[in-house]
Amino acid sequence: MTAQQHTEQRHIVVLGAGYAGLSAATGIGRRHRVTLIAPETHFLHRVRQHETAAGRPGRRPAIDHVLRGRRVTHHQARATALDLNARKVVLDSGEVVAYDTLVYALGSRTAFHGVPGAAEHGYPAERAAELRQRIAGAAAPGTIAVVGGGATGIEMAAELAEAHPAWQVELVTAGRVGGWFSDRGRAHVLAALDRLGVHLREHTDVTGVEPDGLLTADGRVPADLVVWAASMEPYPLAAEAGLAVDPDGRALVDDRLRSTSHPEVHVIGDAAAVDVPGVGRLRMACATALPMGRYTGRLLSGRTAEPFAYRYVAQCLSLGRKDGLLQLIHGDDSMRTAALTGFGGRLAKAAIVNGVVMSLR
After folding, report:
1. Of 64, 116, 296, 322, whose CB has the highest number of CB atoms within 10 Å?
2. Coil vs helix vs strand at 253
3. Closest of 68, 108, 72 to residue 248, by C-alpha
4. Which helix (H) or strand (E) holds 286?
5. Would you say 114 and 218 are in contact if contact means Cβ atoms under 8 Å apart?
6. Cβ atoms < 10 Å from Cβ of 159
7. What top-level class would CATH report for the domain 3-107+235-300?
8. Residue 244: is its pLDDT beyond 90?
């Protein structure tokens, strides 16, 4: 058997069909046999969950449509355990799938940080469809409290306020809303939220969530619905299986995105703690996950042997249907002064988001 034949017969398993996993599977599947394990039938496109919550039509292609023409089999199941020594994945069906190389791309989930009642009474982005139904089924308009002043919270608050003007939307955050943007970028975000009637509660620590509102260090905030958009955390499966992880639970990887403890496992997307020279630790984002997936597709299909490289370009927000922000940034993720705002920013965000789907292949 030649070395090329041996390579061709490798079985590569990809866990997760998010930005990183799906783009990796389509890239590897150009040349090798791949099994993609993910419970979804359609691409989630998580950066559009605020649109789902507001009742906007979504553009989420079928995963099998994205995989067309590739040597990829989509196994619709959820991974529940990894046997790293035996190189096997245990599924929720009880089935066991063996691999030669594993690409771990399970991504991240909303973190509740142990806040009492947050998981029980708060709607994270993952439950956007349920939130939409809850709003539609309400007997009368009320108050929606969105917890989190990051990109997810800002977009959720703006979209809900525009789609449901009869509801009062409160944006509650422990820090400053959009505080990482340039002065111009943050000023535009604040102006847009004010125009939409969103009430801001900055520097407010949420200590509990109840069925009818929030408990905070400054007192109670009444609310009929609570949207939880505080931050993200990696799924615990990597740490539970024995992969080396950082204190946040993200898997430690080398410059080719291989686990430092198990080099036959490539970890990409939000699940990976990736350090890039001159940039530092990459943040969890679609903007970082997709390039990792494309790189791993090239690496494992033999189209590159170079280490992973990355530089930031921009951050973008939608602020309703007619407003947005495209904040230009330096390669190390620090802010530039320049920002595209208003309808131009909205068009730029829409182009980027729509381009993500096309770039998965």
Report:
1. 296
2. strand
3. 108
4. helix 286-300
5. no
6. 25
7. alpha beta
8. yes
pTM equals: 0.94
Q: Which two tokens stand for residue 247?
A: 């204190």
Say yes or no: do domains 3-107+235-300 and 111-231 share a fold: yes
Strand pairing category for 231-234 and 108-111: antiparallel
Q: What is the DSSP letter of 48?
A: G
Confidence class for position 9, pLDDT limits 50, 70, 90: low
Q: At what angle do helices 286-300 and 19-28 cross, to 10 degrees?
A: 20
Residue 108: name the closest of 229, 231, 258, 260 by CA. 231
Measured distance CA(160)–CA(167) in Å, rounded: 8
C-alpha distances (whole Å) from 124 to each of 102, 225, 304 are 29, 11, 38
What Rg value do the Cα atoms of the chain yield, rounded?
A: 21
Local confidence band at 8 (pLDDT 50, 70, 90 cut-offs)? low
Q: Are strands 335-341 and 324-329 parallel, antiparallel or unpaired?
A: antiparallel
Report the alpha-carbon distance of residue 136 to residue 225 in Å, rounded: 12
Strand bridging mode 206-210 / 199-201: unpaired
- H/E run at residue 348: helix 342-359
The H or E element containing residue 236 is none
Number of H helices, E strands in the chain: 11, 25
Q: What residue ranges do the domains of the chain occupy?
A: 3-107+235-300, 111-231
Mean pLDDT value across the chain: 94
Residue type, 204: T
CATH architecture group of domain 111-231: 3-Layer(bba) Sandwich (3.50)
